[in-house]
Predict the structure.
Amino acid sequence: MASRRIAKSSIDWASFSKRVPDAQKSQYLQFKAKSDGYLLRVLGQPEAPPALDWAHYQSKIVLPGLVADFQKQLAAVKVPYPEDKLSTQIDAQAKEVEVKVAEFVTESGVRIDSYKADLAKWDVIPAFDQMTMEEFADHFPDLALDPINRPTYWPHTEEAQQPDEPPAH
């Protein structure tokens, strides 16, 4: 016999549904319906099995002592409830994961702040089709043409540039 009765589902369906992508909502609803069906079937069963009417069997079976022997053997049967050996390990893993999730959230917050700073830069920069060469050089000094400090040859692409040193023969 189980030592405890299942009273309700241990799944937090509200928080579960928040994590389900819109494309998989129908699969989630099917899964939830199946889980609820299993729970209802379990709850529909009696908590204890029905008691055997040994007197009825005693009156129907003529072999003396057979029913009493069965009754004694059935009373001796003890079905052990499985011992819970894994809950402590699962709880420890959950605590480790919670720490990792908290670290990830803080790291993500830092990344989000840096991305917001990068996006704020683009709010100040004019559109490329409205930008002058001087404005481009101010905003992107590493990409702009600098004929004084970094002279290049037309068409000013990396492939078109001559090497700094002549090839050795």
User: Anything to note?
Assistant: The CA atoms of residues 100 and 129 lie 45 Å apart. The two ends are 91 Å apart (CA to CA).
